[in-house]
Design brief:
The protein has helices at residues 42-48, 98-101, 151-154, 160-170, 186-197, 212-218, 229-233, 253-256, 280-286, 298-311, 325-333, 346-349, and strands at 2-8, 17-23, 30-39, 65-72, 84-87, 90-92, 113-114, 134-138, 143-144, 178-182, 201-206, 222-225, 239-244, 259-267, 289-292, 317-321, 340-344. It has 351 residues and is of the alpha/beta class. The structure holds NADP nicotinamide-adenine-dinucleotide phosphate (NAP) and zinc ion.
C-alpha cells in the first residue's frame, strides 16, 4: 500500500478538503496512472453530499480521469510506461455474467465496481476516485486516448460523453434521426455534439434562454425554452429520441408529448420516483417509451474515444484548481458551468 494525496468529503455537509488515501501496490494486471486531469461530474456532487444515500466516507469523487502511465504489472499487454491513458466510471466487474460477456460491464449482474464509492475487491474497503494524485486500475478497465485531442478536454468524455453516446447508439441515431436533449450542462453539451456527429437533427430543451447562442455553436439546430408553452407546443410529436439529463425531479410528461410515434425518452439524469407520475395515455396511444440508461461498457467507451479522435470532438471546459472544487460545486448547482469543470491535478500534486 502507498499513501497518495487526494481531495474528498468526510461527511454529507462537509466541504471537500485535502486528505491522504491508500492505493494498492500494482498487481500483475494493473496499470498505475499519474492523474493529469479529472472532470467534475454532477454525480461527484450527488455522492459527496449523499443525495442518493449510500455514500461511504471519506468520499473521494472523480470518474473522468486522464493521465500518464508510470508503472505496469508483469502481465499487462495493452499499455506501457509513458502512454497516456484514461479511466471512466468503472474499475471492475465480475467479467463472467451475461452482461459482462456482452461488453455491458455497466449492467454487470453482480454489480459493477464504481471508480469511487464502489466495493473495492482488493482492499475490502471502498474505492476512491480521480480527485487524487494516482490511480491503480486493472488494464481491462483502462482506455486509450486518441493522440490528436486536448487531454484536459478529453476527460469529460469518460462520463458525460459515454453516458450520452451509449443511448444514442443503442437507439440507432443516424442521419435521419431527430434527437432532443433536455438540459445544457456537462452531459447535455456532449449529447448535442455527439448526436450532431452522428448526423442527427438536434434540438435542445433548456430552462435558460441565455444558453441559446452556445447551444447553436455546439451544433444544436433548434433551441426550445421549456418554460414557454407555445414553444413546447410547436414541437409536439417531433422527436425519435430524447435524452433527458436534468439531475433533479421534474415533470417528464411535457417531453413525452414531443416524442414521435414509437419514440423514446431516455432518462440519464434524475434517479428516483417520477413526480408528477408518468401518464400512460400518450405512451399507449403513440407506442412511446420512457427508458433509462447508465454510462457505457469499456468497449463502447473506447469506440466513443476513437469516434471523437476521428471527428475532433472534445468537451467545452473550464480548468480549475483542486482547491477550487467547493466553489465549483456551488456553481454547478446554479447551472453556471460552461460546460464542464476539469481539475488540473498538478494543483494537488504541487500543494
Ligand atoms: P450539470 O452539468 O449540472 O447539467 C445539468 C443541466 O440540467 C443544467 O445545466 C440545467 O440545464 C439542467 N437543470 C439543472 N437543474 C435543473 C432543474 N432543477 N430543473 C430543470 N433543469 C435543470 O450535470 P451533469 O454533470 O450533466 O449531470 C446531469 C445528471 O446526470 C446528474 O444527475 C448526474 O448525476 C447524472 N449522471 C448520470 C449518469 C448515468 O450513467 N446515467 C452519468 C453521469 C451523470 P439548463 O440550464 O439548460 O436547463
Ligand atoms: Zn459522471
Amino acid at each position: 500500500m502507498k499513501n497518495v494525496k487526494a481531495y474528498g468529503a468526510e461527511a454529507p455537509e462537509a466541504e471537500l478538503k485535502q486528505m491522504s488515501i491508500e492505493r494498492r501496490e500494482v498487481t500483475p494486471n494493473d496499470v498505475e496512472i499519474d492523474i493529469l486531469f479529472c472532470g467534475v461530474c454532477h454525480s461527484d456532487l450527488h455522492t459527496a453530499r449523499n443525495d442518493w444515500g449510500g455514500t461511504i466516507y471519506p468520499a473521494v469523487p472523480g470518474h473522468e480521469i486522464v493521465g500518464k502511465i508510470t508503472n505496469v504489472g508483469s502481465e499487462v499487454t495493452q499499455f506501457k510506461v509513458g502512454d497516456m491513458a484514461a479511466v471512466g466510471c468503472l474499475v471492475d466487474s465480475c467479467r463472467t455474467c451475461d452482461s459482462c460477456k456482452k461488453d455491458l460491464e455497466q449492467y454487470c449482474l453482480t454489480g459493477f465496481t464504481g471508480t469511487y464509492n464502489g466495493k473495492d475487491k482488493h482492499s475490502g474497503g471502498h474505492t476512491f476516485g480521480g480527485y487524487s494524485e494516482k490511480v491503480i486500475v486493472d488494464e481491462h478497465f483502462v482506455l486509450k486516448v486518441p493522440g490528436n485531442l486536448d487531454l484536459a478536454a478529453v476527460a469529460p468524455l469518460l462520463c458525460a460523453g459515454i453516458t450520452t453516446w451509449s443511448p444514442l447508439k443503442h437507439w440507432k441515431t443516424g442521419k435521419h434521426s431527430k434527437v432532443a436533449v433536455v438540459g445544457l450542462g456537462g452531459l447535455g453539451h456532449m449529447a448535442i455534439k455527439l448526436a450532431k456527429g452522428l448526423g442527427a437533427e438536434v434540438t435542445l430543451f433548456s430552462r435558460t434562454p441565455g444558453k441559446t447562442k452556445d447551444a447553436k455553436e455546439l451544433g444544436a439546430d433548434h433551441v426550445v425554452i421549456s418554460t414557454d408553452n407555445n414553444q413546447m407546443k410547436s414541437v409536439q410529436g417531433k422527436f425519435d429520441l430524447i435524452i433527458d439529463t436534468v439531475p433533479y425531479v421534474h415533470d417528464v410528461n411535457p417531453y413525452v408529448a414531443t416524442l414521435s410515434i414509437s419514440g423514446t425518452l431516455v432518462l440519464v439524469g434524475y434517479l428516483g420516483p417520477l413526480d408528477p407520475m408518468l401518464n400512460s395515455v400518450p405512451m399507449i396511444l403513440g407506442r412511446k417509451s420512457v427508458a433509462g440508461s447508465v454510462i457505457g461498457g469499456i468497449a463502447e467507451t473506447q469506440e466513443l474515444l476513437d469516434f471523437c479522435g476521428k471527428h475532433n470532438i472534445v468537451s467545452e471546459i473550464e480548468i480549475i484548481k483542486m482547491q477550487d472544487i467547493n466553489e465549483a460545486y456551488e456553481r454547478m448547482i446554479k447551472s453556471d458551468v460552461r460546460y464542464r469543470f476539469v481539475i488540473d491535478m498538478t494543483s494537488l500534486a504541487n500543494s
